[in-house]
């Protein structure tokens, strides 16, 4: 039953693999998963890791991405997704859910939940989507305290703590770079450069910061949609596609529901559906049946 009901790879090994990937010189690609089933598809297709987006998690709960989700909700969903595959899972921890002490508890619970890492951002609480106008950031010193508390709470040294800065669109790129340096000095293992608007911005961050960098290739936002090759050539270490799978799924769901509403049947949608056999393959249905059969006749 190895790897059937949960990932075969121990959590500690996933964290080691994530760190090794960030040091490998090869861009680590982490599509967003809004469910464990999506995570299984990400793993089967051959990506390097899984990402759990706060925006996607909020949307899946029917809520906007304005800091309404709780640490308990995030940790629970993260645990389900992280356990579904042998890939490392990085999760969005927003602002750490409060004070520096809350950020410390956030890291503690996300470690317990089996995540390979999390990112904390320098927005004020409650936060806004990183690609909307009207954001506000906390002082650098306050974010340094937030990160310091998070780093000190870490028990597994391989758990990756990533610092996200939203300052580029608020204070300008030079200030965002200064913040990134301060965050790295505070112990951040990776910097998430949010909402950059030009390729040159990505290049300037890479030239100025020594630690691994994470790019956000979200659709309909402020950043150009750079290819994995472009990001790798610039020298970025990881890229997330946070809401892509949810957007794809919801587009298909809405189109299908409209057709059922207008025609009274789903018969015209069958070619646009995942087949039952493919779902069972992804779920390893036959492996479960073998276990049931063996136990019934053992």
From TrEMBL:
<comment type="pathway">
    <text>Organic acid metabolism; propanoate degradation.</text>
</comment>
<dbReference type="GO" id="GO:0019629">
    <property type="term" value="P:propionate catabolic process, 2-methylcitrate cycle"/>
</dbReference>
<comment type="similarity">
    <text>Belongs to the isocitrate lyase/PEP mutase superfamily. Methylisocitrate lyase family.</text>
</comment>
<dbReference type="InterPro" id="IPR040442">
    <property type="entry name" value="Pyrv_kinase-like_dom_sf"/>
</dbReference>
<dbReference type="GO" id="GO:0046872">
    <property type="term" value="F:metal ion binding"/>
</dbReference>
<keyword id="KW-0456">Lyase</keyword>
<comment type="function">
    <text>Catalyzes the thermodynamically favored C-C bond cleavage of (2R,3S)-2-methylisocitrate to yield pyruvate and succinate.</text>
</comment>
<keyword id="KW-0460">Magnesium</keyword>
<dbReference type="InterPro" id="IPR015813">
    <property type="entry name" value="Pyrv/PenolPyrv_kinase-like_dom"/>
</dbReference>
<dbReference type="InterPro" id="IPR018523">
    <property type="entry name" value="Isocitrate_lyase_ph_CS"/>
</dbReference>
<protein>
    <recommendedName>
        <fullName>Methylisocitrate lyase</fullName>
        <ecNumber>4.1.3.30</ecNumber>
    </recommendedName>
</protein>
<dbReference type="InterPro" id="IPR039556">
    <property type="entry name" value="ICL/PEPM"/>
</dbReference>
<dbReference type="GO" id="GO:0046421">
    <property type="term" value="F:methylisocitrate lyase activity"/>
</dbReference>
<dbReference type="InterPro" id="IPR012695">
    <property type="entry name" value="PrpB"/>
</dbReference>
<dbReference type="Pfam" id="PF13714">
    <property type="entry name" value="PEP_mutase"/>
</dbReference>
<keyword id="KW-0479">Metal-binding</keyword>
